[in-house]
Amino acid sequence: MKRLVLVAALAAVSACSEPATEATDEAAVEEPAAEEAAAMAADGGPPYGDFKVTTAEGEVWTEAVSEDGTYTSTSPTGETETGRWVQRGNQYCTTKDEEGATEVCHTESVDANGVWTAVDPEGNTVTVERVAAAE
User: Fold this and answer.
1) Count of domains in the chain?
2) What pLDDT, in 10s, does the model give residues 53-112?
3) 127 lies in which domain range?
């Protein structure tokens, strides 16, 4: 929201300013793209794609994380959950598509052996694997 107000203020000032402020406007427009490019999953890849998520109990879920900020998670029994996601540093945060849902963030890391894990706020740990796209 602050960025939107800043961009609107810059646009208003640039309408009355000399061309020297155009560089500031361009920098403000390019900044979000740079932030988006910086968002990475724990494995160093983009935060979106298809993932295999294995619980401590051995249950395997699949998660399709779309670049548009939506996800679909499929349980071992085929039930699906949909929602929105955002990557904040080492935090992968999701909000289910259901009334009253709140955002839940999972702390992600990759250990010395290259194993990618995510831990929810209750301390439950899952192993995450990126699934290569079918060619």
Assistant:
1) 2
2) 999 999 999 999 999 999 999 999 999 999 999 999 999 999 999 999 999 999 999 999
3) 49-131
CA-CA-CA-CA torsion for 39, 45, 48, 54, nearest 10 degrees?
Answer: -120
pTM for this model (two decimals)? 0.68
Burial (0-12, 13-18, 19+ Cβ within 10 Å), 8: exposed
β-strand partners of 71: 65, 83
- How many Å separate Cα 41 from the centre of its chain? 8
Task: Give the C-alpha separation, 72 to 63, whole Å.
Answer: 6
> Is residue 44, in this structure, part of any structural domain at all?
no
